[in-house]
Amino acid sequence: MRNTVHAHCFTLAEVMIATVVLGLAVAATSAIVSGAQSSLIKAENRWGRQHLTTNAAEFYLLAGPNATMPQGVLPDGFSATCQLLVVDDIHEEALEPIEEWILGEFQIQVFDKNGNRISDTRVRKVLKEDDFE
Length: 133
Fold this sequence. Notes:
Strand content: 15-25%
Number of domains: 1
Shape: rod-shaped
Structural class: alpha+beta
Largest sheet: 3 strands, antiparallel
Helix content: 40-55%
Distance between the termini: 110 Å
Strand order of the largest sheet: 1-2-3
Number of helices: 2
Number of strands: 3
């Protein structure tokens, strides 16, 4: 008895189909990775703006709207402003001070190195009437 070994050779059509399938898989993977990277960068930027806004808001809520921001709260070149407003969009009875306390609103804006506003927030807080002077 004779052993016969049949070597199977791929045809040109099979090789071309396999190459196309592999190419499509690589293209799809690249598109998914690129989209994920873009989403990650956008999320990171949103988080950064929110972090700076939170730092500024915490500072002004603790130190007052007219306080000077110390170095280190925001990165070099970044700045923030705060304006204290009287809240007037509430029920009439709530507008009257209660034992010299009144509702105020801190309007806080954060600016980048070029002076462009990157975020803003409003925070309401009960304050002494004297704080509005």
